[in-house]
Specification:
mainly beta, outer membrane lipoprotein receptor (LolB), chain A, 3 helices
Length: about 190
């Protein structure tokens, strides 16, 4: 009987230390490289759908960029800088303390996220109890790379990111932007 219990403890220890696609994804963010993802972004809100395709960069902890034809979002800790190329507006704002977006989650911000019991090796369910959100990570079965993340805010609002490609780069030069042709709106006050 003792041997069975010892065997079960060893097996449980091995399982808890197992490299899962989710753990591997978040471990990769701790490298000294910049994560670059080509993504499709879908937001459904009260029957309206917003779709955008662009490139998402995780530059450092708390610092990321989403860059598409119509919009560029730069997040550095709690400061959000949004360039809207269609309206020619540059908006500076602060993220509220409990703010959490799907891009925050992709960049490694896991505060207040609780991962639920695994259903299978390539799907991870999570919830954000304090905000009432829940979501899903899906990983490609053959490569183990992240392929999809969904965030459900409530029954009328959901956000989904499909990952088209993942790469690591040494440098990102897209932070220098000419502000001259933009109307500046500063909401940080």
């Amino acid at each position: 009987m003792r041997n069975i219990i010892l065997l079960w403890i060893c097996y449980a220890t091995l399982l808890s230390g197992e490299n899962t696609p989710l753990k591997n994804f978040y471990k990769s963010l701790k490298q000294n490289l910049i994560l670059k993802m080509e993504i499709d972004f879908f937001q459904n809100q009260y029957g309206n759908t917003f779709i955008s395709s662009g490139t998402f960069y995780v530059i450092a902890q708390g610092k990321y960029v989403y860059d598409s034809y119509s919009i560029k979002i730069i997040v550095e800790d709690s400061i959000i800088t949004t360039f809207n190329n269609e309206t020619r507006q540059l908006v500076y704002s602060f993220a509220e303390k409990d703010h959490l977006s799907i891009l925050d989650i992709l960049s490694g911000k896991l505060d207040n996220i609780e991962f639920l019991d695994k259903v299978n090796m390539h799907t991870d369910h999570f919830k954000v109890e304090n905000l009432g959100y829940h979501g899903i990570f899906e990983f490609d079965k053959s490569s183990g790379l992240l392929s999809l993340i969904k965030l459900f805010v409530d029954r009328d609002q959901s956000i989904m990111v499909e990952v088209k490609s993942i790469d690591f780069i040494d440098d990102y030069k897209g932070l220098d932007i000419n502000h001259n042709n933009f109307e500046v709106i500063d909401l940080r006050d």
